[in-house]
CinA family protein
Amino acid sequence: MDEITRLAATLGEHLQSINAQVTTAESCTGGGIAEAITRIPGSSAWFEAGYVTYSNHQKNLQLQVPAELFARVGAVSEEVVRAMVSGAQRHSGARFAVAVSGVAGPDGGSIEKPVGTVWLCWGVGEKLISRREQFAGDRDEVRRQTVKAALEGLIQLVDAEIPTQG
């Protein structure tokens, strides 16, 4: 079992332990997080929905990301991924969510947002945690690292919600 599949399986076990669901809102990974999750048999018990919103128009249409954000801060920004998480949670009803938007390359980068720049956001209820990453490598490697980071962050978020014994 590869590392991403192992992470997805761990996420599923942890979500099932608290009877919770997750949703994904993806841009630069093109559905890669949802694909990793659905590799796991029985994932329908804890995976609610995946939104692949590659264009700004679809981010606005499917997730209600305010159109003015794209002009003001760009699609690869903290504000956009936070809005993506909130929209995915609202539409799916899932308790947990992750959103990603980045510059996977090989082109499309800028001085402010070079290739490999990725914003991730995780949400549980009203709590949102966002982080900017600068991944190295080619397009496939940036996307793989993004999927891995998204799953790791979800596991941490779910683990924080599991009641402790004693």
Notes: The chain has a mean pLDDT of 97. The two ends are 34 Å apart (CA to CA). Residues 139-161 form the longest helix (23 residues).
